[in-house]
Amino acid sequence: MLSLDLFIRLQRLLSTWRTNMAKLAAKGGTPVRSEPFTNWPIVTDEIVEAVSDVARSGVWGHRATERSERFSRDLAQYFGVEYAIVTTNGSTALELALRNLGVTFGDEVVTPACTWCATNIAPVIVGADPVFVDADPSNYCIDPDKIEEAINSRTKAIIVVHIGGYVCDMDRIMEIADKHGLPVIEDCAQAHGSRYKGKLVGSIGAYGCFSFQRSKLMTAGEGGMVLTSDKYISDPPYGTHRPGWQMDKILSTRKRNLGWNYRMTEFQVAVLESQLRDLEQLRLKRVENAEYLKQKLIDIEGVEALEQSLEQNYYSYLFRYDSRYFQDIPKHTFKEALAAEGITLFASPSDQGPAYRSSYFFSPRKDYSDIYCPITERIFEEESVGMPATWMLLGEKKDMNDIIDAITKIKENLGELK
């Protein structure tokens, strides 16, 4: 009979042998990739000089300036709308849109279940109840066929999200909205430069809301933007973009909205100006690499790219994972193995499940405990794998091949993950 000491030593030797023999990085093998992907944000001499100009000017914010007004005009012209209002972040952009539509306590707002929670929280901030609608399995955006089922007499707006840069079926959505006389807010936080049938997203609905947060396709670290052709939101003394400097005018306006200070600083404007000019060039690079990945993924059974468009931009590169072709290895194990191979993955809210499970959502008027969106549940729990395309898809073909090689390596060595 083996002594306990000998047994422990043999176990250690066996563990060392397995580690030395392992091919997968998650089990001690050599990773496919050890260097980082393309840096983000891209810091150019033009950005550095623009920020320096603002610093030297002594005009860092507070009131409209030539620079911020020029940038707002450039944004409006680029997107083909009457007005562009820069603000503190994407969340306040959504809030501005809702407040300027008059959405308030007791109202309902149709929102996608498959999205970052800020989309669903915005109605709560203004006192309304979000109504969650399931996803379209082809691109993870809101399913237009399920929107109409969510509309009732309390519905005051529809928010749609171009998730990861993938674009919603805006023809169908606008048809439903027009039928019921409802405004559409496009959440474009992840879709700067994406187009739908030639038209830039954010310019199709009544309002387009964007984020300039650190990881976004245009970034100033933080910031946001509202696009609209509704003059009310663009008129500073009356809108919610600025505090109520002229109280008599505010109290006489049709909206009677006192407003908040959601203005962007001049430093942020300086960082963003040149990024608007570079947006399309970088988008085309991402599209090129996304199409390359899509073709390569075809050869790997069990992973499949979402429905892609040459008109979209990519904040996320999303693909479906089917565990049946990976010896029933669960998605979280596959993601851990992929990350160990040096492939950057999003720290996704999907790890916590759909937003409607959160304690954020409670209302005396609505029971959120029994909500079930089966497609969204499947996307979050079993299927969706996403990479931060903002910078990863700006790489070269070798970088794309590393992604494919890592997935292939995992599939060829699944026994190590058992």
What does this structure look like?
This protein has 418 residues and is an alpha/beta fold. It contains 14 helices and 12 strands. It has helices spanning 4-21, 45-57, 66-79, 90-100, 117-125, 144-147, 170-180, 231-234, 247-252, 266-297, 331-340, 374-383, 389-392, 397-412, and strands spanning 83-87, 108-112, 129-133, 155-161, 184-187, 195-196, 199-200, 207-211, 224-228, 303-305, 316-321, 384-388. The strands form 3 sheets. Strands 1-9-8-5-4-2-3 form a 7-stranded mixed β-sheet, with helices on both faces. The chain has a 3-stranded antiparallel β-sheet with strand order 10-11-12. The chain has a two-stranded antiparallel sheet with strand order 6-7. It starts with a helix and ends in a 6-residue tail after the last helix. The model is unreliable at 236-240 and 243-254 (pLDDT under 50).
Summed up:
The chain is an alpha/beta fold. It contains 14 helices and 12 strands. The longest helix has 32 residues, at 266-297.
Q: Structural class given helices, strands, pairing? A: alpha/beta
Global geometry: globular
Kindly report the spatial arrangement of strands forming the biggest sheet.
1-9-8-5-4-2-3
**What integer value in Å does the Rg equal?**
24 Å
Q: What's the mean pLDDT score?
A: 89
Q: Identify the CATH homologous superfamily of the largest domain.
A: Type I PLP-dependent aspartate aminotransferase-like (Major domain)
Structural domains: how many: 2
Ends distance: 30 Å
Question: How many strands, which pairing sense, and closed or not: the largest β-sheet?
Answer: 7 strands, mixed
CATH fold field value of the largest domain: Aspartate Aminotransferase, domain 2
- What's the CATH class of the largest domain, please? Alpha Beta
Q: Say how many strands there are.
A: 12
Element string (H = helix, E = strand): HHHEHEHEHEHEEEEEHHHEEHHEHH
Helix content: 25-40%
Second-tier CATH architecture of the largest domain: 3-Layer(aba) Sandwich
Share of β-strand residues: 5-15%
Report low-confidence residues grouped into runs of 5 or more: 236-240, 243-254
Treating each run of at least 4 consecutive H or I residues as one helix, how many helices? 14
